[in-house]
Write a structure and sequence with these properties.
This protein has nine helices and 22 strands. By secondary structure, it is α/β, with parallel strands linked by helices. Strand 4, helix 1 and strand 5 form a beta-alpha-beta unit.
Length: 394
């Protein structure tokens, strides 16, 4: 018998695999699993792409500081460059590049090592002096900049379009996608997973993929597992038209302030990373609060792109980052609960890693060798005292 929730959402009584979360990670996993012949049911408490994906900057890069992140980023660039051809969905893919402005001389050696690592993987990253950075982006002021890392093949695309493309393809391969359904329990018999309890009824299943983003910690708790993923608010403003704005604007990040901007229509989207929260406590609060944040943003913007100060603010919003203790994602399969897979905690770079993650979860589910060695992304690294963090966080 099909379960029907209060809102009229129908669920099948059983599924081979239940994917929890309908952002880019979840729909990518659902598509790759369904494409491989797995019976998939995807559940999201809201709308597809309505969580962190809806408010992602859309950056796609290989300019990371670890081998595994460079490899995952490269797979994302390759997949998104061919997405409109492969999925029949236009995602506005543009290779405008990433430009990191380094303001602390002590950080230069780390960026030199970063560029060297990326070049070992075929990435055309290289260091620039301030004058060369100014040629890449004449709009930017380089006072106080001591060097820049330029990654010209990095790109940008539209996250919502990607979600819809993956969702359409997943459905075409038989996946069932249900929105407005919240998972409220995970049933287990010892270490064997037996089903999920939802607001629309119970679904018997022997496999779950947790791709719930900032809500993944809660899903882990329902399963009796510790997934150290916590939500932290990030705010972004969108300006009016900026005089002299070039057609191509790289996604530009000042380090170490993490002030960043990129083109959004005739204006710019701008933000910077505060301390994880105002009070040090994770929160699901997504209310925009200019408070002390906006004057600090204006100070950073005025120093780097003074032309933006006359553009005004068109709109602003707050969203959630799904952070882990070392700012790296957790991807793998639990050793404590059979067939419980996790793909979460991307700490701000989930969109660009969506394509690779879907393939990795499919391969782990099918017990195939992975295309990328992700042993270091296993959740058990935290119990072992892992300390290596991703430096290039936007």
């Amino acid at each position: 018998m099909t379960a029907v929730g209060a809102g009229g959402t129908s669920l099948p009584p059983m599924a081979e695999c239940v994917v929890i979360g309908g952002g880019v990670i979840g729909v990518s996993c659902a598509f790759r699993l369904a494409e491989a012949g797995v019976g998939v049911l995807l559940l999201d408490r809201g709308e597809l792409g309505g969580g962190s994906t809806a408010k992602a900057a859309g950056g796609i890069r290989s300019s990371f500081t670890s081998r595994v992140n460079v490899e995952l980023g490269l797979r994302g660039l390759a997949a998104y460059s061919a997405f409109s051809r492969d999925f029949g969905t236009e995602i506005d893919f543009r290779r405008d590049g990433y430009l990191y402005l380094v303001t602390d001389p002590a950080d230069v050696p780390a960026f030199e090592r970063c560029a060297e690592l990326q070049r070992e993987h075929g990435v055309r990253s290289h260091l620039l002096d301030p004058a060369e950075a100014k040629k890449v982006l004449p709009l930017v002021e380089t006072d106080g900049v001591v060097a820049a890392l330029w990654s010209p093949e990095d790109a940008k695309a539209t996250p919502d379009a990607v979600v819809q493309g993956y969702a359409k393809a997943a459905r075409a391969h038989g996946a069932k996608l249900r929105t407005g359904v919240e998972v409220t329990g995970i049933e287990r018999d010892g270490d064997v997973l037996t089903g999920v309890v939802t607001t629309a009824g119970f679904v018997r299943t022997g496999a779950v993929v947790c791709a719930a983003g900032a809500w993944s910690g809660r899903i882990g708790e329902l399963a009796g597992l510790d997934l150290p993923v916590r939500p932290y608010r990030r705010q972004v403003v969108f300006t009016g038209p900026v005089p002299g704005l070039p057609e191509s604007v790289p996604l530009t990040i000042e380090m170490p302030s993490a002030f960043y901007f990129h083109r959004e229509g005739p204006g710019l989207a701008m933000s910077f990373s505060e301390d994880d929260t105002d009070d040090g406590v994770p929160s699901f609060d997504t209310r925009y609060d200019a408070g002390e944040w906006l004057p600090r943003l204006a100070e950073l913007a005025g120093r780097r792109i003074p032309a933006v100060l006359d553009a005004g603010i068109r709109t602003a919003w707050a969203g959630l980052y799904e952070m882990t203790p070392d700012r790296n994602q957790i991807i793998g399969e639990s050793v404590l609960l059979s067939r419980f897979f996790y793909a979460t905690g991307f700490s701000g770079h989930g969109f660009q890693m969506g394509p690779a993650t879907g393939e990795l979860i499919r391969d782990r589910y099918l017990r195939r060798p992975p295309s990328v060695d992700i042993a270091e992304l296993d959740v058990r690294r935290f119990a072992a005292g892992a300390t290596s963090a991703e430096r290039n966080i936007v």
